[in-house]
Amino acid sequence: MSLAASPAGVQRTRRSLDKALMQLRAERVATLQVNLGRICNQACRHCHVEASPSRTELMADAVVDACLSVLERHPQIATLDVTAGAPELHPRFREIVEHARHLGRSVLVRHNLTVQAEPGHGDLPDFFASRKAELVCSLPHYLAEATDRQRGPGVFAGSIRGLRALNAVGYGRGDGLPLTLVANPVGAFLPPHQEDLERDTREHLKRQHDVTFDRLIVITNMPIGRFADWLERTGQYDEYLDRLERAYNRQTLPNLMCRTLLSVGYDGRLFDCDFNQMLDLELAGRCPQTIEEFDMAALAERPIRVGEHCLGCTAGSGSSCGGALT
Ligand code: SF4
Ligand code: SF4
User: Fold this and answer.
1) Model confidence band, residue 171 (pLDDT cutoffs 50, 70, 90)
2) In 39-190, at which residue ranges do the beta strands (DSSP E only) sit?
3) Can you list the alpha helix ranges (DSSP code H) found in 38-154?
4) What is the 73 CA–ligand 1 centroid distance (Å)?
5) Ligand 2 pocket, 274 CB below 6 A?
6) Ligand 1 atom with least separation from CA of 43
């Protein structure tokens, strides 16, 4: 089936998608992922959110309140996943984390490590530890040159300082404060085998920087946002999509994150995942479209809006916020 038959809003229509992918449905909402805005202290080359210090979008108070209210009313949503930009730069970030923890939910923060150096954020490691937040921290590669090429000069060194501060309060030591690193290819290719890169990264960071972590996951660079622009500029877009298409793996479908996650934009609109949010692909069918209209019965088994970009999640071992899928 061609993408020409897929929902409006999908820009590219040249690829064929597996019928099983086109018929994808959610199976429950176990994670509410809230995107607090586009502001970030970094401006990485691969950023699918196109975040940067010059962006100004932030989740409004009414939307924050609606997200917390949904969490209160639906105990089956076990995890609040907090992302952005740099979510810590939202003025209500700490209140949101505390509220969710008070409700007994797991809180996962997508933390870029260098935001700890921003004014007023030096105590983030203590805050995270005291609230027992799970941290998922991006570090494209264990070599400084590769990470700085993608994230900007000095980002690797700042990330190592951030990791040391987290280790100092107990993160990444296997005793209840989980620290996951996220690596992604620094270029237009698929990620390496997760276990091999985890082993190499663990050895290198311990030996060279005396830094430890619990787990490393690899993610595929999604062909959207700044990364898609870069692929287009360098004439690699079609080649990259061909690579993803050739590596399509149907075994990834049962574990795709959109099957158990619902994404909330800073403006309160609902999406199947952060990627669909960036592509402005609203929920399909007659689903509620905003967090204020949240209806678990309508959302739990909703049809998923898929497109060409989904080849990034389904290539090879698969890719998700939790790493490889098979
Ligand atoms: S990839 Fe992450 S750290 Fe980099 S600009 Fe985007 S949101 Fe910020
Ligand atoms: S991009 Fe990935 S997570 Fe999002 S709808 Fe497609 S397969 Fe699901």
Assistant:
1) very high
2) 79-83, 106-111, 134-138, 179-183
3) 61-73, 93-102, 124-131, 144-151
4) 31
5) no
6) 5
